[in-house]
Specification:
single chain, mainly alpha
Length: 208
């Protein structure tokens, strides 16, 4: 819902950070992998109930996730980037792994520490699955039929009320407030579920 505004607000700080990181040994793909490793560490820390460590790792991992695309675009603009789509593929795969394991980690930790039920987190994962299916299928067909939505990302992204910014914030929130994690997950599952329905309907209409 607020991705476009957030991307515009963060564009300049990310550009400056990418310029500082623009060194031969640092590549967009390595930043993607670093972000994934940090996100997996956050999930593990949440499962172990190290909540402060988990939220710190999670936020740093998302910074790395934002910097990989910025660095790639910077190098491409200067004719120094890899023109293949491998980096975009790696990035979206890493995001899916990060979000899925993040839900699992907080569910494990919250159930152990606060006797939280698992089913709200399972609802979140189902909603993530439907959303992922909708926008990945749309992106593939839109590319093939010449109806691509180009907003600077590797895929044609159908934006709705639950997007990347909201997802990062919610994952951080239930790490900050793990004693309310399952209630947050239940509300979040509703929002993501509504987004899933919106994306299926919007994708169908756009491809007709």
């Amino acid at each position: 819902m607020i991705d476009r505004a957030m991307r515009a607000a963060l564009a300049r700080p990310l550009d400056r950070a990418a310029a500082a990181l623009d060194r031969p040994g640092i590549t967009p793909d390595r930043l993607t992998v670093a972000g994934l490793v940090l996100a997996l560490g956050a999930a593990g820390a949440a499962a172990a109930q190290w909540w402060a460590v988990a939220v710190a790792l999670w936020l740093v991992s998302r910074i790395a996730d934002g910097l990989d695309g910025t660095l790639a675009r910077r190098r491409r603009a200067r004719g120094r980037g890899d023109e293949s789509e491998a980096g975009g593929f790696l990035d979206i795969a890493a995001d899916f792994i990060a979000y899925g394991t993040g839900v699992f980690g907080v569910a494990w930790g919250a159930s152990a520490a606060y006797d939280a039920p698992w089913w709200p987190f399972l609802l979140v994962l189902v909603a993530y699955y439907v959303n992922g299916t909708a926008f990945l299928a749309f992106s593939s067909i839109a590319e093939r039929t010449g109806r691509r939505i180009d907003d600077g990302r590797s895929l044609s992204f159908l934006g709705r009320i639950a997007e990347g910014t909201e997802t990062i914030a919610v994952h951080a929130l239930w790490l900050i407030l793990p004693f309310w994690a399952w209630q947050i997950a239940l509300v979040w599952a509703v929002f993501v579920g509504v987004s899933a329905v919106q994306r299926v309907v919007a994708g169908y209409r756009l491809l007709r």
